[in-house]
Amino acid sequence: MRSFIIKSLVVLSIMASGIMIYGFINGALSVNGKETKTSENTNKSVEKNKDQDQKDEQTLSLVGLGDSLTRGVGDDKGAGYFDRLKTALSESQKKTIVASNLSVSGAKSKDLLLLLNDKGVQYTINHADVIVMTMGGNDLSPGMGNLTSEFLATYQPDIATFTTDAKTILETIRSNNSNAPIYWVSLFNPYEGLKGYEKTSEAVMQWNLALEKVTGVYPNVYVVPSLDLFKGKVPAWLYVDKYHPNGKGYQAITERLLPIILTNLKGIESNE
Question: What is the residue range of 52's domain?
Fold first, then answer.
């Protein structure tokens, strides 16, 4: 009986050892299998990321915000400065330009703030490499029909509200895209040289100065002046409505923007 018990214990011990060895071998194979699978997945993921990086290097996302000037109203070709800029960047960068013009004719700063709350707009801005915009003309000017000598004698532009809105606009854009350079084209004076509208030039200058002060605290934000471009060229560079630029005017804005953008793009590429 004692001998039987001892033999039984020996057999059980051998079986237990065998189970442990089997479990160890099976577990090792299982882990190795998972590691191999994970390694394969990781390699695929890296390859996918490399493909995505290569795709990104071959494209440039250009986003336009603002009012009728970015929309291109007044250009007989319908291109405005935005489409001209898209073409010029494509030719100079040898890349596919993904352009999204989100501007709205007649928009004021409050309208842009509302637009920036849209999820689709936020997504587009998030993926932008370059952001160009115009805003403020409709905030400053009550419209040609309202600009009488009597009105101008007492008119006080609401610069304080505009600068507050401009700050919120920039902060909202930056909350969705912290890196893309922003090029804000400041105002020109479409009423230059008109009798009875002499005060408009000073108003535009003060407006642009206020914009420069606001943008000055934000890195990678550039105010691109246009007042000097149009000086002496009005009304030759205006559309028949005597307010919006014509093709020549938009071409001049494009030529002012392009070298600034290209210089910054070269700087970004050299840092990468």
Answer: 1-57
